[in-house]
Amino acid sequence: MPTPSSSPVYLVDDDEAIIDAISFLMVGYGYEITSFNAGDDFLSSVDLTQPGCVILDAKMPSMSGPQVQRLLHQVRSPLAVIFLTGHGDVPMAVDAFKNGAFDFFQKPVQGAALSESIAKGLHYSERQHWKLRHQQLIDTLSERETQIFKLVIAGHTNKQMANQLCVALRTIEVHRAKMMSKLGANNVAELLKLAPLLNSPSNNG
């Protein structure tokens, strides 16, 4: 079981009875729920760039759960999305699940199952937040700095890089220092943790 997370948990549902029931239920599992009656209120009130978990009602009058999810996707929010559905909402929820929802449940939901899903969703969200934050740092690298990043994690020394790129050793040292500083990395081991992010579309070609 994942270790407890301090990231927030949100609930968006237009039914006050559902909000009260789930909020009360989740307190027993150690979760303090922040609730909203409408999707637009949630979107305008929450920092969507931070990790967390949002439990979305599938059908709401003004903005449906899938519509909220699409907006979260558009802004590249790391929030994990868990859907709550009525019986007639299942096809909608299945489509949302295919579009990246973390989990979905039919009402009424079992507390233990929802609690476990929240815990896993929060840790998933925190990993996504880490990836997005470091991807943004990688995107600030110049073409030369990216080239040096790749050579460093491939095991090349500064001298080998200077020879391969036909530049002065001092030039390599300067670019390498700038690259490390931009990424907030202190050593090669920390660079290796970031290496998978080089394969993202924004760093290809």
Automatic annotation (TrEMBL):
The segment(s) forming the HTH luxR-type domain are 134-199
Which keywords does UniProt give here? DNA-binding, Phosphoprotein, Transcription, Transcription regulation
Q: Which InterPro entries match?
A: CheY-like_superfamily, Sig_transdc_resp-reg_receiver, Tscrpt_reg_LuxR_C, WH-like_DNA-bd_sf
Keyword Membrane (UniProt): no
- In what residue span(s) does the Response regulatory domain sit? 8-122
Q: Which SUPFAM superfamilies match?
A: CheY-like (SSF52172)
Q: Which GO terms describe its molecular function?
A: DNA binding
Entry-annotated residues carrying 4-aspartylphosphate = 57
Q: Which CDD domains match?
A: LuxR_C_like, REC_FixJ
Its recorded name reads DNA-binding response regulator
Q: Which organism is it from?
A: Shewanella algidipiscicola
